[in-house]
Amino acid sequence: MSVIRKLQKKDWDVFVDILANAYPGFGVITDQDKEKMKRRLLQAEKYPYINCYGLFRSKKLLGGMRLFDFVMNVYSHKIMTGGLGLVAVDLIHKKEKVCKEMVEFFIDHYRTRGYSLTALYPFRPDFYKKMGFGYGTTMQQYIFQPGNLPRGDSKEHVRFLTGRDLPALKACFRRFCQTTHGMIYNCDYMLDRIFVDPAVKCVGYLQKKHLCGFVVFSFKRDPQQNWLKNDLIIHNLVWERPDAFLELMTFLHTQLDQVHRIRYGGQLEHLHWVLHDPRSTECNLMHPLGHETNTQGVGIMYKVINVKKLFTEIGGHSFGDENCTVRIDIQDTFTPQQAQSVTVRFSHGYAKIIHKGRYDFQMSLDIAEFSSLILGAVPFKSLHNYGLINISPPSFVSTAENLFFFHDKPVCTAQF
Ligand SMILES: CC(C)(COP(=O)(O)OP(=O)(O)OC[C@H]1O[C@@H](n2cnc3c(N)ncnc32)[C@H](O)[C@@H]1OP(=O)(O)O)[C@@H](O)C(=O)NCCC(=O)NCCS
Predict the structure, then answer these.
(1) Which of the two ends of the chain, N or C, has the fewest CB atoms closer than 10 A to its terminal CB?
(2) Ligand 1: does its nearest atom lie under 6 Å from the Cβ of 94?
């Protein structure tokens, strides 16, 4: 029998030990490292929306996780979203369903609190896909020389930001969240750290004292020990207007004599349009003839945990100007009690759950694909072409394509 509960003071040392072993990449080895990690974890717990939980068997802590009570912009609606991070299991107790029980708890915890959506960053996408999490917008990694960025006429509105600018930075971030589908609002736990770490720099664009964009970055020394060669790592890039973007790009361009390469990891998939030479510094050539611009990877994953509620919550969003009724059959092997059929009537694309009546067509898919589809991370057409959605009768394929086609994929800069 397992008990899952919030961690208490007496549990932290054991949890830190479990984490240190589960994530050797964190480099938490000595007692000092462990104290430092504990301090950081406890600091994060000061935010009321962050809480660590542990799974106990015979009163022994075997694994833990961190839950985030997030609020996400989903098509301009504020949707309560449960975030899962720092999942770790005692090395001795792996493959004993500790993680499975924790994820079941996580889903149940948020569902009973009225949440309809959950999100996580996977250590292995297939592990969480099996549990019904669908891929979000992919991550793009660009590596390019600063001189490839546009150099405009001016960077007169750009300056270093300091701790005094934090309120303005948060306000700018909040406005960006309001206009960007997928963004998580409550990211203070991340933003508050920007001016704490002296290795992290932040440069902003201000128009008449109003902050309309910023870039957070740090330098990374060349691993070959050439101390004059440095990469610039972009941690966060936010802008509200094209002029802010261009001046920030000019600022980055002018680092070309000091910076060997700029590395960007995020969800901007069209960044190579901005570059003078779109090729990555890796200079890879793809068959039959494609110059590598960037590399791509699966990052954040989402699982809808209450389909009907989510449709109701985003009722003000038009899915595409279609009038039809569809029955959606959703499989969920991880949470079988949530496998269900929902009938949705779309009036000019606005969705409403109906409880009886006829439907024009029926589609069936797994909860993982449904979660990616409803959030606009993947178009219906791709899932259908790959045989991941069945639709009947097939004459409604183009209607479904129009319904589930989004111009903006969800963007998430929160790390958790
Ligand atoms: C990754 C990690 C958390 C896995 O923990 P674990 O407790 O060993 O995993 P579990 O035993 O619960 O394995 C998951 C089980 O859920 C089962 N499962 C998954 N989806 C299922 C589904 N739809 N229906 C039924 N069972 C399902 C899996 O089959 C698996 O059981 P099996 O081993 O019998 O096949 C652990 O190895 C760890 O701490 N790793 C290092 C840290 C890390 O990477 N954390 C993850 C960060 S996101």
Answers:
(1) N
(2) yes
Closest CA to 2 of 114, 115, 93, 136: 93
Give the position of tokens 């972009």. 234
pLDDT of 356 over the 90 cut: no
How much of the chain is helix, strand and coil, in % rounded to 5? 30, 35, 35
| Gap between the Cα atoms of 189 and 173, Å rounded | 13
Q: Is the CB of 391 under 6 A from ligand 1?
A: no
Strand order in the sheet with 134-135: 2-6, 50-57, 60-74, 77-89, 117-120, 301-304, 134-135
Q: Is the CB of 88 under 6 A from ligand 1?
A: yes
Mean pLDDT (whole number) for 99-111: 98
Expressed in angstroms and rounded, the spacing between residue 352 Cα and the centre of ligand 1 is: 36
Label residue 212 exposed, middle or buried (CB < 10 Å: 0-12, 13-18, 19+): buried
Ligand 1 neighbour 100 (Cβ under 6 A): yes
Residue-wise DSSP of 164-206: GGHHHHHHHHHHHHHHSTT-BS--HHHHTTTTTSTT-EEEEEE
| CA–centroid distance for 299 within its chain | 7
CA distance 253 to 154: 12
Give the separation between CA 104 and CA 88, rounded to whole angstroms: 15
Reported as a pLDDT band with limits 50, 70 and 90, residue 224 is confident
Residues whose CB falls within 8 Å of the CB of residue 77, separated by 6 or more in sequence, listed in order: 313, 314, 316, 317
Radius of gyration for the alpha carbons in the chain, expressed in angstroms and rounded: 23
What is the DSSP code (8-state) at residue 327? E
Residues 347-370: what's their mean pLDDT? 96
Output the pTM of the full model: 0.96
